[in-house]
Amino acid sequence: MKKVSLVVLFLSIFGAIQAQTGELKIVGVYQGKNLYVQNPFANSGVGFCVYEVRVNDQVTTDEVNSSAFEIDLLSFQLPIGAPLTIQIKHKEGCKPKVLNPEDVKPSATCSIVTINVDANAKLTWKTTGESGSLPFIIEQYRWNKWVKVGEVKGVGTAGEHNYNFNVDPHSGKNKIRIKQKDKVFQEFPFTSKVAQVNYAMAANGKELNFTNTTGAAAETKYEIFDQTGNIVSSGKASKVDITKLKPGTYYLNYDRSNAEIIIPKKR
């Protein structure tokens, strides 16, 4: 009975200790730099806040019993771009601060070696020098602005990598570009074989119809704005139901053109 009581007491104390701890977690990629941590005193006034640091689930040998310490990532001999999960375990009532967390965040360091769009509007590009997996944002210049049309996840490691994306071009001359974070790569112009699209409002005022130069129905990307600049309808279609729009003036973007449309009161 006495042994059982001691076991219960130990578990209660251990559980209380566990409940009085916290964790600061940082997820990123290795960029060849160490992290620096500001380590306050524990809330109890005894010792410092941090008591353990783990890198990719391995306990570090860093000296954490000081007001500031360095997490030695170099000692793990990781390749540039390797994934990192850093767990800084600390006591309750205090919180350490990582002074340079941006040094383990993926950065747009790569270069585009080649870029091309083929006859089927398939965009291909080759990169080198990636140091962390970041999405490549594909933007198309349409309606006098750059519009995001998709994204492709980057591999994030050194060496050359090939990517592709199927562009949905408008008629005539197109421009496409690729971004990573705030880094914009070169614009790439190309001419598509897509026929020019026209629009017309149905006689009953209940729908918009898009057609090509032969008069056949043609799908196109479109946006409809109200007078305050809010998008009230968008998508890709050959026919758009406008019965839910209130009567008034609207602005239409379609194919590579702009137009003003007036929805009548009686429909």
Question: Secondary-structure map with pairings?
Answer:
Blueprint: H1 2-19, E1 21-29, E2 35-38, E3 50-55, E4 58-59, E5 68-71, E6 83-91, E7 97-98, E8 111-117, E9 122-128, E10 135-142, E11 145-153, E12 160-166, E13 173-180, E14 183-184, E15 188-191, E16 198-201, E17 207-211, E18 220-225, E19 231-237, E20 239-241, E21 248-254, E22 257-263
Antiparallel strand pairs: 1-6, 2-5, 2-7, 3-4, 3-6, 8-9, 9-12, 10-11, 10-13, 13-14, 13-15, 16-17, 17-20, 18-19, 18-21, 21-22
In short:
With 267 residues, this protein is mostly beta strands.
Name its key features.
disordered N terminus; four-stranded antiparallel beta sheet; 267 residues; 1 helix; mainly beta; 22 strands; Immunoglobulin-like; five-stranded antiparallel beta sheet
Question: Mind explaining what this structure looks like?
Answer:
This protein has one helix and 22 strands. The strands form six sheets. Strands 10, 11, 13, 14 and 15 form a five-stranded antiparallel beta sheet that branches. Strands 1-6-3-4 form a four-stranded antiparallel beta sheet. A four-stranded antiparallel beta sheet has the order 19-18-21-22, with no helix packed on it. It is mainly beta. Residues 1-19 have low confidence and may be disordered. It folds into three domains: 20-104; 111-191, Immunoglobulins (Immunoglobulin-like, Sandwich); 198-263, Immunoglobulin-like. It is elongated. A hairpin with a 2-residue loop joins strand 13 and strand 14. It has one helix at 2-19, and strands spanning 21-29, 35-38, 50-55, 58-59, 68-71, 83-91, 97-98, 111-117, 122-128, 135-142, 145-153, 160-166, 173-180, 183-184, 188-191, 198-201, 207-211, 220-225, 231-237, 239-241, 248-254, 257-263. It is 7% helix and 48% strand.
